[in-house]
Amino acid sequence: MKEGLVLKAAGTPGREDMEAINRYTRRAYGPEEVYTFSLVLCDNEIDRDFERFSVESLEKLRELFLGKTCIFDHERRSANQTARIYHTELEERRGEATGAGEALVRLIARAYLPRTERNKETIELIESGILKEVSVSCSVKRGICGICGKESCEHKKGEIYGGRTAHTVLTEPVDAYECSFVAVPAQRGAGVVKSAKVEKILSRDMTEEVSLTKSQVREIGERFRALTEKAGWGERYRRELEMGVLKYSAMVQPEMPRAVMESAVKGLSIDELLAMEKTYSGMAERALPLKPQLMPRGGDRKENYNRDFKI
Ligand SMILES: [Zn+2]
């Protein structure tokens, strides 16, 4: 992943933390003057763009991110609020494997910001979990194929070859710029989708995971039930139309085997059935005038019915 997240607020920083922090400050700060937190910057898991860092890249990024800033851009007026990364380390997650079959390795950072009046709100937002996701930016020299190791090859990202997903391994990082907190994490985490309309969720191409709130699940369920009911009306209407076509067909072309007509109407669309019923009923009326009750001028009625069923 190239997006990270806050792990936890680190509590009161210890002596080692303060030594590291005070390398970046003009004067020596006391532990009560700074707020620290740790975050995952990135890892070696294949992300949604089908890219991943190699463990060597993470090791290089570990050096590059040291001293870099985390920006809070959730509010314009506090745009210049930043936290600074004062410690980085790689953490191997025992027993957790990546999609590429490696042990999961995460790049963890610790960052601080001074406890000032101005930073109070930001600290509160981190503590409460609202500011949680960060996006990191860095540049790498090369991307190689995760399957064959070449820089250019036939393997297409995201496709499966012999059970392995093709992806790009990002290697040789040359610079790490910063990480920035995203107030509204992109499509992940519960807070986001709450405001999204169900239509938007349903129309989204499902290349990413989405999470739904209870009320959205309920809304989708209600719509599904309503549509199922309307679909039932539609099927009944279709059967009526088919029966009409079969009836008139038997009148105007009695030599046509019913089984042939039955299988023919099955393949017709509603519009085709309507056109066919109209044509056949016209032909039937010319051939043998029908009593009104046999053929009510029901076209209009049926069209209204049809409109109800269209959604
Ligand atoms: Zn390849």
Textual characterization of the structure:
The protein folds into two domains: 183 residues, no CATH class; 95 residues, no CATH class. With 311 residues, the chain is of the alpha+beta class. A hairpin with a 5-residue loop joins strand 5 and strand 6. Strands 1-2-6-5-4-10-7 form a seven-stranded mixed β-barrel. It starts with a strand and ends with a helix. Helix content is 36%, strand content 27%. The chain binds zinc ion.
Q: Give the uncertain stretches in residue-range form.
A: 185-200, 298-311
Order of helices and strands: EHEEHEEEHEEEEHHHHHH
- Total beta-strand segments: 10
Strand-residue proportion: 25-35%
Taken together, the total number of domains comes to: 2
Choose one word for the global shape.
elongated
Mean of pLDDT:
80
Distance from N terminus to C terminus (CA atoms, Å) equals 41 Å
Largest sheet properties: 7 strands, mixed, barrel
- Which class of secondary structure composition applies to the elements? alpha+beta
